Structure to design on (82 residues):
């Protein structure tokens, strides 16, 4: 398992990349900014790991991260089709 520090850095980098997508023409900035905000909130969740079910906690965290990335990818796909 990656250290918390490395995981936080990766999530921060992903949030930065998602923010750059919001600067593209034709992308709904509100949707992308909400996703970036949700991704950044994941960093605070990393700092407070649930005791007992650590594996399940990180699995859920990874699923939430992938969900937010998919929201932005779908928004980007809509913008490129238009």
């Amino acid at each position: 398992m990656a250290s918390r520090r490395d995981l936080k850095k990766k999530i921060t980098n992903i949030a930065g990349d998602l923010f750059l997508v919001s600067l593209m023409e034709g992308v709904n900035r509100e949707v992308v900014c909400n996703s970036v905000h949700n991704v950044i909130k994941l960093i605070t969740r990393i700092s407070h790991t649930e005791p007992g079910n650590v594996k399940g906690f990180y699995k859920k965290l990874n699923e939430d991260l992938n969900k937010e990335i998919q929201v932005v990818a779908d928004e980007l796909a809509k913008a490129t089709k238009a």
Residues 4-81 form one domain.
